[in-house]
Amino acid sequence: MTNGKKPRENPDYQPQAAGASSYLYLGIGLVVVIALVVGGFIWMNNKSYPPVDDKVLAENASFIVGDRAAPITIDIFEDFHCEHCSEFEKQSSAAIRQNVIDGKIRARYHMLNFLDGASDSGDYSSRAAGAALCVARNDDREVFWKLHSALFERWNDDLNNQQIADLAVASGAGPTSRECIASGTLVDEARSMADASKGQLNNSTEGQVATPTVLLAGKQVENITAGTGWLDDIIAGDRPTA
Q1: DSSP class of residue 224?
Q2: Considering only CA atoms, which of 47, 83, 190 is closest in space to residue 127?
Q3: Which of 167, 162, 83, 77 is nearest to 119 (CA)?
Q4: With 0-12 CB in 10 A as exposed, 13-18 as middle and 19+ as buried, what is 178?
Q5: What is the pLDDT of residues 131-144, one digit of tens each?
Q6: Cβ contacts of 59 within 8 Å, gap of 6 or more
Q7: SUPFAM superfamilies given for it (predicted)?
Q8: Which of 43, 93, 103, 125 is deepest in the core (most CB within 10 A)?
Q9: Is the bond leading into 71 cis (omega within 30 degrees of zero)?
Q10: Measuring CA to CA, which residue among 131, 146, 144 is closest to residue 182?
């Protein structure tokens, strides 16, 4: 922004021609930059990732629904501030719930928070994940599912804790969950769980972490945002994984 005045010139400044040494230093700098880029590319292409640890996934899921004896377990990774996760919720949530109720699958929900910085508050994903954890600890699966859907309907809103608590109550949550959410009691724990889950997702996808993602036996399921065919294939015994 300017004030309309001409910028003052420095009468003592005289541009100097670049000498041979300047070009030499420039050339050396370019070589160093190229070497760093090539080295980084080689390192990334040779980096190894450990196998997904199912125990870590089980211990750090925000909520687990379904019979322990269900023949199939899927891990669902979402962020409450993620537009594509909201679309995934609309497309697949009913099918996931019905198959859980029918005993065909067990679903482990992992609420990540890497979109915290995209919210005005800077921590919306973490606070919403903490709210989901409060409900998971104190209410039944129907309340969790209703709050889960309600939060994704408001994915682009930066709700404060009281507003999230009000959503939870409207979803059937009791006073313990309401207080837990309003006070942000489990936000830090939700962050730690998100970090652990994200680490396992990182291992599965070799560093290509994104939401929504579904894992089956530690492998990424393909085409999850193109309807519910991916789930139909899994129920039918196929393995639509990358």
Answers
A1: T
A2: 190
A3: 83
A4: buried
A5: 999 999 999 999 99
A6: 196
A7: Thioredoxin-like (SSF52833)
A8: 125
A9: no
A10: 131
